[in-house]
Amino acid sequence: MTSSIDVHSHYVPRGWPALPGDEAPRLEVRSEREAMIMVGSKEFRRITAEAWDPEVRLADMDADDVAVQVVSPTPVFFSYGDDPADAAKVSRIFNELALEITDASDRLIPFCQVPLQDTDAACAELERAIADGHAGVEIGNHVGDRDLDDAGIRTFLQHCAALDVPVFVHPWDMPSAPRLDRWMAQWLTGMPAETHLSILSLVLGGVFDDVDPRLRICFAHGGGSFAFWLGRMDNAWRERYDVIGTSIHPPSHYTDRFSVDSVVFTEPSLRLLVDTLGPAQVMVGGDYPYPLGERPVGRVVRDASFLTDPQRTQILRTNAERFLARP
Q1: Mean of the pLDDT values across residues 118-130?
Q2: Contact 173, 190 (CB under 8 A)
């Protein structure tokens, strides 16, 4: 069977420096194989050597029959709430350290991060990182209360389209509340809702109507809950056009303008994505190396009984080749 291209994985450089600021993410190294991401005095996430060691990563890729892996930042390091100049420094350091991991093999494809809160700084760091060897950019799905249809973010996305740079959108900074702070509910309900809202913002905010259609943009975690509720959104566009008639077409018209990854874990969920968005818009993603990811990467795609062999090949590899503009 075809080896896959995994468009969704993360890294944390073991050499991440301690930066000023009480809430700046830092890395507390506890052994050769283990560290803790700290945000202020709070433990955020335990990580192991898979996050920084390319040899461990490549061995896991071999075990999962992953030919190529896109390696993106871990979103907690985005620093969108910082002063733009400080965030630009964080992005540059993070992006330079990423190359120390991905330079180990041409099977590892680096995606950079940018200070998205400042459009000019974000565009400048994108250009610098691409010139330095990055193949794309990962962004968070919002900057504070600014969603992806914000004027500055829209300008950044247009710049990505003009430079022919692929964009991977990852949910982050989910709201915290007593009802969401139990059972990882921020990750189990907040992340899907955040991603759904951001795709909707590109539709109803008119971004897909205005931005160059060459924009290559992919959303993590199967696009959140968007595919499941597409019929509801179309119905609202028709029945309450006075309120949400801000796009030229109903939401279902735009499903060929973006891609999603396949980290949905069950065959019925994957079938919904393929039926709703089309097999050309779904790509393998594993969310490696974190525990809410899929191992082996691409398992549901490989085992899905409803896919034809050409569709399976599309999702495992050729859609990602198009997204990454790889020969």
Answers
A1: 98
A2: no
